[in-house]
# Entry
Amino acid sequence: MSVKIRKMRSEDYAASMQILDKWNMAPVAPSATLQNPERSELDIEHSFVAERDGVIVGVSSYIVHSPELAETASLAVDPSCQGLGLGYQLQLARLREMQAKGIRKVHTETDREDTIAWYMRKFGYVRVGTNPKKHDFSLADVDEWTVLQLDLDTYQP
Ligand SMILES: CC(C)(COP(=O)(O)OP(=O)(O)OC[C@H]1O[C@@H](n2cnc3c(N)ncnc32)[C@H](O)[C@@H]1OP(=O)(O)O)[C@@H](O)C(=O)NCCC(=O)NCCS
# Structure
């Protein structure tokens, strides 16, 4: 098995969206019925993919809110490849890039208890609050996000 974590290219976009769709996390363009979607795009410039034997099996991204604050977005691994460390590598790649850009704080919103525990255990995130969901996204039976924060000044992989 050969796995590569690399920056996303435009030709990876459709495969990345398919993985996000499997988790009900695919960005959607704003519309008359959904004016303010949770995620409206996947910004290729700020995204990474996991490529396994030439197939895209994972994606991660982030959004820069200010010179010092960013938010993670669209981290997902194909269900057939979970537990192989790809999510860890995808998260690490975006944290390193954010650090290199001078970002000091990272916010992450998630709704899965196992994922929340994973972020806290593996990367040292702390819980800082909750945020109501704007619409059905990710887990259909959870209506709020748990907001996590990571201090990049002190984070060391
Ligand atoms: C969260 C997610 C990105 C993690 O990706 P991953 O490649 O499975 O993560 P890793 O393999 O790096 O680590 C997963 C941990 O769960 C364990 N694990 C084992 N089998 C697993 C399985 N079938 N499913 C999930 N986790 C499993 C791993 O052992 C590992 O823990 P450890 O390193 O302490 O042993 C992935 O599970 C996913 O896409 N989840 C659904 C979408 C989601 O919640 N995205 C985050 C939005 S903020």
About this structure: The mean pLDDT is 97.
